[in-house]
Amino acid sequence: MSKTRVIDWNQLSRRVLDNNPVSRDEAMAILSSEEDELLAVLDASFQIRKKYWGRGIRIHVLENAKSGMCRENCSFCSQAIGSYSGVDRYKFLSVGELVEGARNAYEKKAVKYCIVTATRGPSESEMGVVCEAVQKIKNEIPIEICTSLGLLTGDQADRLAAAGVDRFNHNLETSERFYSEICQTHTYQDRVDTIQAAKKAGMEACCGGIMGMGETHNDRVELAFALRELEIESIPVNFLDPREGTPLADCSLMEPAECLRCLAMFRFVNPTREIRVAGGREVCLKHLQPLALYPANSLFSEGYLTTTGQGNPEDMAMIQEAGFYTEEMI
Ligand code: SF4
Questions:
Q1: CA distance 162 to 169
Q2: What is the rounded distance in angstroms from the CA atom of residue 207 to the CA atom of residue 122?
Q3: Domain positions in the chain
Q4: What Å distances lie between residue 126 and 2, 66, 319, CA to CA?
C-alpha cells in the first residue's frame, strides 16, 4: 500500500473488528500517516479498543526489586553494569518489602503489581524470595502479580506459576533484524524461548518493546507482528527516554504524534490485547498524553524502574478528565 493512497481508517478498523487482520503494508501506512490524519487514525484505533476494553484503563505498578549491576549489555538500560548512569544499586528486596509494595500498589488502584529485577535470570535464592512473597501477596491482597526476572528455564517458569504468578514479562524490545544492535549478551531467540516457557507453564505473557532506539518503521511493524504470532496477552509499548551513561544517551526523544501512531499500529495489529503506554509516556507524549488512552487501555503509574513519572494523582486526574475509568480487579 503506497503512502499516497488515501486510506479510510474507519473502514480499516471495521475490517479488523470483522476479524480480518491488517497486513504489514497497512501497519506501515499507519506509522507513516500524515499529521492531518492523526485524529482519524486514533479514532479508528479507539473503535477497536472500545469493543474489547470499553473505556477502561488497567493500572500497573512496578517494583524494582533488585536494581543495577546487571551483567547484560542492553544498550538502552541504565542498570547494565557498563552504564555510568548513577542509578541506585541494591540487592533483592525482602519478602516483607515486596508484600508492602503490593499493598501500596493496590491502594493506588493497580490491578497488577509487577516485580522486576535487573538480571540475566533469577538465582536460586531470588526464586525463593519471589515465590514466598507471591504466595503471601496472593493470600493477603486482591491484586494480580506479574514478574520480570530475566531469562527463565522451564523449571523456573513452572515454579513461578505454581507460586501464583499470573503473568511473566520479558520484552522482545525490537525486531529480530535490529536486535543485535541493542544487545549482544543474550539473543532474540533467548527471549522468545523465555516467553514460550512462561506460556507453557500457564502464565500469561507480557512482552513488548522500546520505540526510538534507531529502528526503522519496518522494525516496529515486525515487532508488532512477532507479538501477534506469539499470542502475547499484554504489550507494553515504551518510548526511549535516553539515559546519560548508556550507549543510547544521544538518541533524540520521539515526537508525541509519532508515539501515538505507534500505539495505534500496535492496537490495529493486536486488536484484542492489553496495549500499555509504558516508559517514556510523560517525556515523549508531553501535552498529548491523554490521547494515548484512545489506542492504549493500560499504563504504568507511580513511575518506572529508574525514573519517576508524573505521579498517581496526576494519572488518575488525566484518566478521569479524558472520560476513561480505572478498571477494578477482574
Ligand atoms: S537484562 Fe534487563 S536489567 Fe539487564 S541490562 Fe538488559 S534490560 Fe537492563
A1: 16
A2: 18
A3: 54-318
A4: 51, 10, 36
Confidence of residue 92 (pLDDT cuts 50, 70, 90): confident
Question: Is the CB of 80 within 6 Å of ligand 1?
Answer: yes
Q: How far is the CA of 265 from the centre of ligand 1 (A)?
A: 26
What pLDDT does residue 316 have?
Answer: 92
pLDDT class for 133, splitting at 50, 70, 90? Answer: very high
Rounded to the nearest angstrom, the distance between the alpha carbon of 139 and the centre of ligand 1 is 30
CA-to-CA separations, 330 to 142, 144, 146, 294, 299, in angstroms, rounded = 10, 9, 15, 21, 16
**Is the pLDDT reported for residue 327 higher than 90?**
no
Q: Give the nearest ligand 1 atom to 77 CA.
A: 8
Identify the residue whose C-alpha is closest to ligand 1 atom 3. Answer: 118
**Nearest Cα residue to atom 5 of ligand 1:** 80
Instruction: Name the residue with cell 473505556.
Output: 55
Is 274 touching ligand 1 by the criterion CB < 6 Å? no
Topology annotation, domain 54-318: TIM Barrel (3.20.20)
pLDDT at 245: 87
Indicate the pTM of the whole model: 0.93
